[in-house]
Amino acid sequence: MQRFRPYRINQAVRDKHAEVRLTVKDLVQPYFVAEGFGIKRAIKSLAEVWHFSLDELLKELTHLTASGVDKILLFGVIEAGKDAHGSQAYAPGNLIARAVEAIKHAYPRLTVITDVCLCAYTDHGHCGLWDGQTVLNDETLPLLADMAVTHARAGADIVAPS
């Protein structure tokens, strides 16, 4: 009788089925950045998750980096300036661009990832342009590209469409 060992066939297959080792260097901490000053406001629907103004976020990052986590993901949260096109999402010097610049200045070794989505910036809450019945995907793509470029120019290490 011959016993087949499909998981031992070659190094690539063995690596694919190897034990997972998760370390602090594999973690990405998400943050929701809000306009304003002195804001650390709980998000009721997400336990232990907060909206941070930039000044409070910079303080929080001191604790995060001390723990060894070196990657963050930023989500913008705005109240004013929302419109049908989400124009604040790709405006130069917007909330996330300012946050990225400040974070990279204060913590240059931190990997900063930004969320590329229009939902937080549109007055209708959809992730793209909306015609009243559907999201207009093709027409939204240039806006998402502009948003990604705005983040990259500010110093984001990774732009992440959600």
TrEMBL record:
**Pfam families for this protein:** ALAD
Q: Name one GO biological process term.
A: protoporphyrinogen IX biosynthetic process
The GO molecular function terms of this record are:
porphobilinogen synthase activity; zinc ion binding
Q: Which GO terms describe its cellular component?
A: cytosol
Q: What class of enzyme is it?
A: lyase
Q: In which pathway does it act?
A: Porphyrin-containing compound metabolism; protoporphyrin-IX biosynthesis; coproporphyrinogen-III from 5-aminolevulinate: step 1/4
Keywords tagged on the record: Heme biosynthesis, Lyase, Porphyrin biosynthesis
- Record-listed E.C. numbers: 4.2.1.24
Q: Which SMART domains match?
A: ALAD
- List the catalysed reactions: 2 5-aminolevulinate = porphobilinogen + 2 H2O + H(+)
Q: Which domain of life is it from?
A: Bacteria
So what does this one do? Catalyzes an early step in the biosynthesis of tetrapyrroles. Binds two molecules of 5-aminolevulinate per subunit, each at a distinct site, and catalyzes their condensation to form porphobilinogen.
Family the entry assigns: Belongs to the ALAD family.
Description of how the protein assembles with itself and partners: Homooctamer.
- The entry's protein name is Delta-aminolevulinic acid dehydratase
Which species is this UniProt entry from?
Candidatus Termititenax persephonae
Annotated gene = hemB
